[in-house]
Amino acid sequence: MSLELAKEVIAIEAEGLLTVRDRLGHEFEVAVDIMMNCPSRVVVTGIGKSGIIGQKVAATLNSTGTSAIFLHPVEALHGDLGMVTSTDVVLALSYSGETAELNRLLGSLKERRIKIIALCGNIQSTLAQHAEVTLNVAVPREACSLGLAPTTSTTATLALGDALAVALLNRKQFRAEDFRRNHPGGSLGERLKVAVREVMLTGVQVPVITDDQSVSDAVFELNRKNLGAVMIQDAANKLVGIITDGDIRRTLSVHKNLQEVHLTEVMTKNPVAIGGSLMAADALSIMQQREITVLAVTSEQGCLEGILHLHNLLGKGEFRFLI
């Protein structure tokens, strides 16, 4: 019973989305032009469920290259309207278009000559009449079995807000690199195709010794850098081996005195290495397949350029970018 009901809800909401899509016309282009030409910010406002959707729309606009803030209509009536300037554009969300708290703002906004874009389901409403352009989010029916709770209508409003954000993203030629810079601590970055060289450790961060040093030197470098591995390079800076914490433990189980062991007896020769232009997602796949946590990054000539540690990709669930 619940499963069938769930499918029906999704079908009803899909029907609503298709209705809104098929109705879209020139007014959408006008709305995008207004937002595109806005010299300052898009002020998103709405109350209740529309307000919650508005907060998400504002967040999406910000992360995709369009500066936006969310303004609660009640707070606006008690002073926060002062944060809205004449160069802003207001994106007002109200399915009925007759939300009292929101409509009380309209006179003040018009006095400041602020352009209003309305997302509502009644193009004859007070909000629509005050708007520069209205995007109609009217849906055939709500998915709520009572026909009361905003369900299909909020989904449609959210989808239309996303459509505006994506249209602006394309007009502004917003790139994946720009999106990444707006999410320096976000786990969304894990799924972006960024080059390994953007996230690898370089210079003094890299645990490295030369092949003429001792195993004790390797242990010292392991402890100092605390990354679980140390790279071994020759006099020409070419990568020749790697020693991990596990290699040291296995060696100590056989040899009690590391001074008696030569470096070449402990290190893994010709370790797995990748180029800096490889995508980070591919590097992560290699780590998973090989069950390793460290990858050497080398030049075409085999010279060590840096290392990529699993923590650089997944540390605390975040992608740590070098910006």
TrEMBL record:
Pfam families per UniProt: CBS, SIS
Assigned keywords, A-Z: CBS domain, Isomerase, Metal-binding, Repeat, Zinc
Binding site for Zn(2+): H72
GO biological process: one example: carbohydrate metabolic process
GO MF annotation terms: arabinose-5-phosphate isomerase activity; carbohydrate derivative binding; metal ion binding
InterPro entries attached to this UniProt entry: CBS_dom, CBS_dom_sf, GutQ/KpsF_isomerases, KdsD/KpsF-type, SIS_dom, SIS_dom_sf, SIS_Kpsf
Residues flagged as site, Catalytically relevant: K49, E101, E142, H183
UniProt domain SIS: residue ranges: 31-174
Residue ranges of every copy of the CBS domain listed in the record: 200-260, 267-323
Protein origin, superkingdom: Bacteria
PANTHER family assigned: ARABINOSE 5-PHOSPHATE ISOMERASE KDSD (PTHR42745:SF1), PTHR42745
Family to which this protein belongs: Belongs to the SIS family. GutQ/KpsF subfamily.
Protein name in the entry: KpsF/GutQ family sugar-phosphate isomerase
